[in-house]
Amino acid sequence: MKKKKLAGVFLSLSLVAGALAGCSGDSKTSSSGGGSSKSGDTIKIGANLELSGGTASFGQSAADGLKLAIDEINKEGINGKKLEIVKVDNKSDAAEATSGSIKLVSQDKVVAVVGSATSTNTLAQVQVAQDNQVPLLTPTATNPDITNKAGKLNDYVFRTCFIDPFQGTVAANFASDEIGAKTAAIYVDSASDYSKGLAAAFKEAFTAKGGKIVAEEAYVTKDTDFRSTLTRIKSAKPEFVFLPGYYEEVGLILKQAREDGIDLPFMGGDGWDSPKVVEIAGADALKNTYITNHYSPEDEDAKIQDFVAAFEKEYDKTPDAFAALGYDTGYYLADAIKRSGDASPEKIRQALEDVKDLQLVSGTLNLDENHDPIKSATILEYVDGKQTFKTKINP
Amino acid sequence: MELIQQLVNGISLGSIYALIALGYTMVYGIVKLINFAHGDVFMVGSFVGFYAITVMDLSFIPALLLSMVTCAIFGVLIERIAYKPLRNATRIAALITAIGVSLLIENGLIYIRGAQPEAYPNNVLPMDKLDIFGVSISSQSILILSVSIILMIILQFVVHKTKIGKAMRAVSFDSEAAKLMGINVNNTISATFAIGSALAGAAGVIFGIYYIKIEPLMGVLPGLKAFVAAVLGGIGIIPGAMVGGLLLGVIEALVSAAGYSLWRDGVAFVVLILILIFLPQGLFGKNKREKV
After folding, report:
1. Residue A131 touches partner B, C-beta closer than 8 Å
2. What's in the keyword line of the UniProt record (chain B) (predicted)?
3. CA end-to-end span of chain B, whole Å?
4. Which of A34, A222, A301, B195 has the most CB atoms at less than 10 Å from its CB?
5. What residue in A sits closest to B213 (Cα-Cα)?
6. Distance CA B189, CA B62 (A)
7. Residue A106: its H or E element
8. Rounded Cα distance, A144 and A149, in Å
9. Which residues in chain B are contacts of A276 at CB distance < 8 A?
10. Chain B residues within 8 A (CB-CB) of chain A?
11. How far is the C-alpha of A170 from the C-alpha of A273, rounded, in Å?
12. Comparing C-alpha atoms, which of A282, A222, A208, A271 is closest to residue A242?
């Protein structure tokens, strides 16, 4: 008897709570719906980035760059409106990235989503963008499948950076032309689409140049002990090691490789670009290593130097490539919103596609038919633990 | 030559497993509890060592001791708060609590300081390379192995020669009877947790110095591997944990050496399954017959 009564009370309470929640939910969505694209004076854009987790350094940098750009744009506003960033932390996790994008699109009613910083997490959001017809702009995800999978263009997806095959090809050309390597080893993170994409492009370009791949080894993200595999690489006697991974594992691999007496040149892509790689590996282990990257803060171009100064003033640190591309993505999106007229997702999509000769920090932006930017790559060398500008390579 | 190099790689990896497995196996031996939070105490120890070295500017030995003391206190707190109220509950309840404690520690630390990794400074211990006939052995891996062996010997001494060790063995044999003989069971169990957690703390600092990168979820996989190592050697048997850890490290290195580096973690758990099927008492365990 008593139990039944209690259950009754509980049931009615939960009903009331449910009804209340429903009410508040309704009022929220209707007000935000009114405030976003149709009337009101703000335009909401989503940012779905890695603010914590294994690749947080990338997401955080991109978020800082994006915020700086939006703050600058908001000084004047776009057609009398201000931009508002709605941030979601995807915790460097693909499943979180998907649900974060669903939340931004359906609950916050953003006109476009910026994110994520890595390929794996961006791939997880592509379907959400396509299904809901809301543009997705990744600042730094370089995997080709993001914009064009198996010959089918994802027409709502754009990016501000160049793609993996390009980075891998540039690295292969650098290895055979500048280093003069005839044989190379590839050490790839088999849990990362990014790493595998670069490795495949490197292999193709390097063998096309007459080089030989003498060892292909793999690890998975979060491994800490690489010595056994490094010993294998060492005994294969390559002249060059291509290591397209992310900074945490790359730092450990370089340190352990140097400790085991492997003094070969190592090269990677923009995944190395984090101060953590220097902290983990140490400046000595980084001697004789190179990366391909999107830009160099040492480049004397005026636009780059203005950006570097503004960023340093705001955050008290030098912007890495992720910050530069986050910043560029803010300007690319704002430019498209301005040209779109009514700031509806469909019009913005068209404007993003129609971009022509847009001047950004990381170069002049033009798209090819796959929505992939055509721009130059910078090669950096680590000297005393600092990235130094080595050369710039055009596509 | 490559094979010997791979053995050396395996032994340095295995010494870390052994060090974590020592504490694991000890707690199991006395309380019959699989303490899944042990890997997270190891993680906490690593962070304490990191802050001791970077913020408080301590050198290796003081940082190691500070971390061991902190972890000992932490381990006793965990035991008192989470496990003691369940002392007379079913084994499965205690096991589930242990998993809960493990998740609480991991996510608690992420809440406090975020999930981003930290890097130990590179110059805590001198890094010398010994080259013996083309096989390179780092001074640090020799240090890890010797610390593991020394701690194992001390542990054996404590368990077999001291009063508290005698009390531990009595509690492990029959805690009711031990109570009747005037042994303070609660204090004995706390002491067990203190020693086991101090070992985990030491392993944490050494891991940090050797592998540089530490993060809040770093305890999960080494914790599981240490569990495998403990079962391999015979859970509850101290030299068994040592041998199990080293063996597991060598097996993993050889799997990588054969070119199957992606299968390394998988093989560790296949070893666990095989041991449980064919030799459930472990390498060093006696085949005890159950009384009916």
Report:
1. no
2. Amino-acid transport, Cell inner membrane, Cell membrane, Membrane, Transmembrane, Transmembrane helix, Transport
3. 54
4. B195
5. A280
6. 27
7. helix A94-106
8. 7
9. 117, 119
10. 2, 5-6, 9-10, 12-13, 110, 114-117, 119, 122, 127, 129, 131, 136, 138, 211-213, 218, 221, 252-254, 256-257, 259, 261-262
11. 17
12. A271
Helix axes A56-76, A321-340, angle to 10 degrees: 40
Separation in Å, CA of A381 to nearest CA in chain B: 21
DSSP B246: H
How far, in Å, CA of B196 to CA of B8, rounded? 27
| Cβ neighbour number for residue A92 with a 10 Å cutoff | 27
Terminal Cα-to-Cα distance of chain A (whole angstroms): 79
Question: Does residue A6 belong to the interface with chain B, where contact is any CB pair within 8 Å?
Answer: no
Q: Which class for B283: exposed (0-12), middle (13-18), buried (19 or more C-beta within 10 A)?
A: middle
Render each residue's pLDDT in chain A as its tens digit; 395 residues: 555 555 555 555 555 554 444 444 344 344 444 344 444 689 999 999 999 888 888 899 999 999 999 999 999 888 889 999 999 999 889 999 999 999 999 999 999 999 899 988 999 999 999 999 999 999 999 888 899 888 889 999 999 998 888 889 899 999 998 899 999 999 999 988 889 989 999 999 999 999 999 999 999 988 889 999 999 999 999 999 999 999 999 999 999 999 888 999 999 998 898 888 999 998 999 999 999 988 888 888 888 999 999 999 999 998 988 999 999 999 999 999 999 988 899 999 999 999 988 989 988 888 988 888 888 788 999 999 888 988 877 66
- In this structure, which amino acid lies at residue A186? I
Sequence-separated (6 or more) residues with CB below 8 Å from residue A317: A311
- Amino acid at site A175: A
Out of B13, B117, B262, whose CB is closest to A225?
Answer: B13
- Identify the residue among B3, B107, B110, B122 best suited for mutation to test binding to A, counting A beta carbons within 10 A and taking the highest: B122
What is the 8-class DSSP label of residue B179? Answer: H
On chain B, the residues whose CB falls within 8 A of the CB of A56 are 114-116
Q: Which of A245, A201, A200, A199 is nearest to A220 (CA)?
A: A245
CA-nearest of A90, A149, A158 to A335 is A158
3-class secondary structure, A185 = strand
DSSP letters, B86-108, are GTTS-HHHHHHHHHHHHHHHHHH
> pLDDT by residue (tens digit) across A289-332?
999 988 888 888 888 999 999 999 999 998 988 999 999 999 99
Shortest distance, CA A198 to any CA of chain B (angstroms): 19
Q: Look at residues A297, A247, A294 and name the one whose alpha carbon lies nearest to residue A274.
A: A247
Instruction: Residue B5: name the closest of B171, B100, B97, B134 by CA.
Output: B134
Question: How many H helices and E strands in chain A?
Answer: 12, 16
Does the beta-carbon distance from A228 to B253 stay under 8 Å? yes
Nearest to residue A338, comparing CAs of A324, A326, A352? A352
Contact A203, A169 (CB under 8 A): no
Measured between CA atoms, the residue of chain B closest to residue A277 is B119
Helix (H) or strand (E) holding A388: strand A386-393
Q: Between chains, do B212 and A252 touch, taking CB under 8 Å as contact?
A: yes
CB A229 within 8 A of CB A157: no
Please tell me the distance in Å from A283's CA to the nearest CA on chain B: 10
Q: Where are the beta strands (DSSP E) in A239-313?
A: 241-242, 266-268, 289-293
Q: Note whether A232 contacts B122, CB cutoff 8 Å.
A: no
Name the amino acid, one letter, at B26: M
- Inspect the interface and report whether the beta carbons of B110 and A235 lie closer than 8 Å: no
pLDDT tens, residue by residue, B238-250: 899 999 999 999 9
Q: In this structure, what are the phi and psi dihedrals at residue B32, rounded to the nearest 5 degrees?
A: 60, 35
Q: Does A56 sit within 8 Å of B256, measured CB to CB?
A: no
Q: Write out the two tokens for A253.
A: 């691999």
